[in-house]
């Protein structure tokens, strides 16, 4: 009976969704964010471009969000104090609290009330970021290069004599997970579990057609990670050590320190963000190169082009496609009135393809000058681990091209993940010659 009810409910929901899509096509003269179609999943940029051309801030009935696809407006929303990331302040918070309580997610509710810096506005965000950045100084991140190279070599050693390997499973996933775990001083034997938790958690974030089972899996992973970090941090309070968690425990600025819940949230944020963004950057970047063989050939012969190529990869095929902001108060923006708490989806992918920001934005060009993108964010919330992701990706591409002079994509049409927030592949098999 429950199964029948579930199928009937899904049928009605899909019917309602299709009706909304039809209405929106008529209302917006053919422009609609229909995220269930294969065309959108394979190439969302066509939709973002049409949305921008129609209205740079377009309300989408299918997502109930105002989508911002113009670079100028996206950058302004990411840096302007009139736009907030702290969803606790707005009506959506009551719905989330009820959902957590109904599902018995006391840990998630507690972390919702005590969020990481990702979900905080200044001055709270500024305070935590100032303390956390002690573990992300350029000098320290640069010093990790030899260790990152060892990890990459270890991953590639395992596949060196094979006819093929999976770029995602064999390198792009383990590399950032191993590096961030080493930075935090976490046990090597826990690495597989970190990766599993990380992947399970993201199933419930921005997933298209996410099932109840996936939502439960995501919640279980979230709570398991918080409990894990709680145990680690409490164990090490009296003897912090010199790794990143030790630095968090000892971090102090003008008498201010991170409280225990802020530490849990920070560790979770860095593990997930540091892992998933780099994984997708490497996978998306390599796939893009396979579709531009002449440019891949240039990189193989000229490693000095790789840093600029990575910036173009980030612009052209970003790992993170959108982030949310809320109107701090009732406001007028771009000649239109918005109520307090109005949610905006800042389209990173859409802004990166804005022709006013980048000439010929739908062309991939590793020689592009003055590349403008917001793939690591912009303003006060710019990704604190951006330099680490760039170094990991650079070393990964250099090492692959050093070892393997001929590479071939086995599946010319790999399956993109079904997610509005994160874009990437679960697998990317490559033939070695």
3D structure, described in words:
- By secondary structure, this protein is an alpha+beta fold.
- The protein has one domain: Cytochrome p450, CATH 1.10.630.
- Helices cover 54% and strands 9% of the residues.
- The protein is built from 19 helices and ten strands.
- The strands form three sheets. Strands 1-2-8-5-3 form a five-stranded mixed β-sheet, sandwiched between helices. Strands 4-10-9 form a three-stranded antiparallel β-sheet.
- Helix 5 runs antiparallel to helix 6.
- The longest helix has 31 residues, at 260-290.
- The model has no long low-confidence stretch (mean pLDDT 90).
Poorly predicted tracts of residues: none
Tell me the CATH architecture: Orthogonal Bundle
Q: What strand line-up does the widest sheet have? A: 1-2-8-5-3
Average per-residue pLDDT, rounded, comes to 90
Shape: globular
Count of helical regions: 19
What's the N-to-C terminus distance? 55 Å
Percent of residues in beta strands?
5-15%
User: Which H/E pattern describes the elements?
Assistant: HHHEEHEHHHHHEHHHHHHHHEEEEHHEE
What value does the Rg take, in angstroms?
A: 22 Å
| Major sheet | 5 strands, mixed
State the CATH topology.
Answer: Cytochrome p450
CATH superfamily, by name, is Cytochrome P450
What structural class should be given to the helix and strand makeup? alpha+beta
Return the CATH class: Mainly Alpha
The count of domains is 1
How helix-rich are the residues, as a percent range? 40-55%
